[in-house]
Amino acid sequence: MFKSLFHWKVLLNIVLAMAFFAGLVWLTFRWLEFHTNHGDEVPVPNVMNMKVHDAIKILDDSGLEYEVDSFKYDPKFRPFQVLAVFPSPGASVKNGRSIVLKVNPRTWAKVAVPDIIDRYKGLAFNQLNLVGLKVGDTLFEPSIQRDAVLRIIYNGTSIKPGTLLPKFSVVDLVVGSGPLRNVPIPNVVGRSVQEAKKIIAQALFEVGIVDHEDGGKDDSDIVYYQDPDFGSQRDQGMQIDLWASKKTPAEMQNKIRQLDDMYRPKIDTTLAPIQYNEVPPPTIEQRPTVIKPPVSTNQSTSGTTQPTTAKPKPANTQTAATTNPTTAAKQNTTTPQSTKPVDKPKPKKVVIE
Q1: Are strands 296-299 and 222-227 parallel, antiparallel or unpaired?
Q2: Among 102, 195, 242, 343, which residue has the fewest nearby CB atoms (within 10 Å)?
Q3: What does each C-alpha distance from 274 to 120, 268, 278, 300 come to in angstroms?
Q4: N- to C-terminal Cα distance for the chain?
C-alpha cells in the first residue's frame, strides 16, 4: 500500500496540484492589487474652514469622492463652512475613496410647531421654549376660553401645529381674554338652520338644541322660534336653542304660543306685591309669687273654736314652671322684710235669743 503512494505518477500529480494551487493564489492577489489599486494612494487634502464648493473642487481634482453632511449650526462660523473632515487631512487613501465633509448649515435646523391650541398659555410658552421657538407678542381676543391659546401667528399669518420653522423663530400667540358681557341676541327666526348657525357663531354664541318638527336633521328647515328671544342680552358663549320646520313661522303660530307659555310666561304687574312680615317670638310673662296666708281660728255657734285654714287661690302651673329660679330665690329672701302682716279675720258675733 505504501509503495503505491510513493509511485512516481502519484507524486507527479501531487506536485502538479500544489503548483496549480500556488499559481491560483498568486493570480488572486495580483487581481486584488490591480482591482483595489494597491500601493496607489493619495493624501487627503486639507480643506478645513473652506467653503464647501471650494472643498468639493479640490477633492475632485485629487480623484477622491465626497459626502457632504450638515453639522450642528454654530453662529460663530460662516454658513457652508467646512468644520470637520473624515479621514483627517494628510491621511493616505486610495483613489476613489469617499471623504466625508461636515459643513456648517446656513441657519438653524427647522423644528415642528407643537400642538398648543386650546392649551393654557403658561403651558404653551414652556412647550415652545423646549423646541427652540420664542414667543413674541401675546394678543388677547374675546373668548369663553380664558387664558387659552386660540391661534399661532408667524410673520402675520396663522399657522397650524406641525409646521416646520427655523429654530429660534419668533411666533405670536392669540389668547382668549374671557367672554363678553351683555351681548345682544341676534334674530334668526325666518332663516334656515344653516344660516342661523353661521349668524350665531358670528355673534359669539353657541348653538344649543335644534328641534326639528319632523324629527329630522335637515339644515334647510326654517327657524320659527328661538330661545333666548331676539334683543335680549346674554354673555358670550351662551347657547341659543332653535325650533325649525318645513313650514313658515306664520303657519306655526299655535306652536309658537305654546312655546311662549313655556319659555316666556306673562307676569301680571297690576297686582300688589306680596309682603312677608316677620312675626316676633312670643314673650313669657312673669307673675308674682303667691304667698299663703297664715292659719286662723273661727268660733262656732256652740262656743268652741275650730281651726280653719284659708284656701289660697290656685296658681298657674305653667307660670310657676317657667318662672326664673334666680328671680324666685330673690323674692323668697326678701319676703319677710317687704310684705305686710296679714290681718286675722274677726270672730263673728252670735246672738242667742
Answers
A1: unpaired
A2: 343
A3: 50, 13, 13, 72
A4: 199
Is the Cβ–Cβ distance between 140 and 177 less than 8 Å? yes
pLDDT one digit per residue (tens) for the chain, 353 residues: 555 666 677 777 888 888 888 888 888 877 766 665 555 678 888 989 899 889 989 888 888 888 888 877 888 888 889 988 988 888 888 777 788 999 988 877 789 999 999 999 999 999 999 999 999 999 998 888 889 999 999 999 999 999 999 888 999 999 998 888 888 999 999 999 999 999 998 888 989 999 999 888 899 999 999 999 988 888 888 899 999 999 989 999 999 999 998 888 877 667 666 676 777 777 766 666 666 666 555 444 444 444 444 444 444 444 444 444 444 444 444 444 445 555 555 555 555 54
Closest CA relative to residue 173, chosen from 129, 203, 206, 235: 129
What's the predicted TM-score (pTM) here? Answer: 0.45
d(CA 18, CA 23): 9
